[in-house]
Amino acid sequence: MATHLIVYGHGAGDPGAVGNGTNERDFNRKVLHPHIKKWADKSKHTFAFYDITGNKDLYKDTANGWGIYGMTAKRYASITEIHEDAASSSATGGHVIINKAFKPDSNDLGLAGIINRIVGWWGSAKSSKGISYRDNLLNLNVCKIRGINYRLMELGFITNKSDMDKIKANLDACARGIIEGITGETLTVTVTPPANSFNIKNYHTTKFAMIKLIKDDYAYKEVSLKTKVGAIVKKGTVLTVVGIEYSGQYPRFKLKSGLYITTRKDTVEEYKQPVATGYPLRKVGDTVTVKKTATSYQTGQKMASFVKGSKYKIKQVKNVSQSNSKRAYLLDNIDSWVLEQDVQ
To answer: GO MF terms on file (predicted)?
Structure first.
């Protein structure tokens, strides 16, 4: 049987788009990947994964002269790259991106179908069965030249709470749809009756840096929340989180103190500290000019001379901690990330 490659976007220091308490790099590798791996293992086809640690970025590797340049159609029957999109909080839906020189095959349409069932199709992709056509993405173009079957999935908008809630609530169905879309198979489902009193939608499943209690509760010694420690933790208290651990099917926040607390949405919420920066806060749609003193993109690649002094619209915004910047902007037309310190 054929071998298919699945690539999770970003990594190697780039978290990708950020929203709703997570980012592309970590969500796809840490949350979605275990479900995809489970269904990939049920397939008669072989699946490989480019990186599940977050230490590699296929885009950067290709830009540096390896990555896809080291792959062939003989080695991989297909490459599917998985991302989430970002824009304003009202933008919604997903799509499958293919090279505009091609027509969508059954795999592309199958993958677009699972996106439509979970979050719906994005914008103009609604009129093309969830398919978008591009010719300005590096991996897309290199695969075309090398004759490799490639597509990029935008599962939905990471900046849209409804999109992310739907994806999180349907992780297994999403993963199954991705594997079936790639292979054309119909995989066997093992049905496990849900616990009567448990609904994962009532719990946070994303690690936050900090949380705030929205009602009184206790911290506990064990992840099972068996032994209360200390006095009641009052509503409004802010706590530092170091991870999420599970007790059976129940997610718990592990605190910096080593104690545990519930992740129930009716008890705790994410606490975001204001980001202090000396630069203006810009948003998607704003027009900026790249400073003539800029030397490189946010990824570290040398900036082309024609970019400096030119005006571009902001397509996406993400939080970073790099040089003197706390934010980076994805600029239209050049599709590159630029630090806030390098625009005006």
So the answer is: N-acetylmuramoyl-L-alanine amidase activity
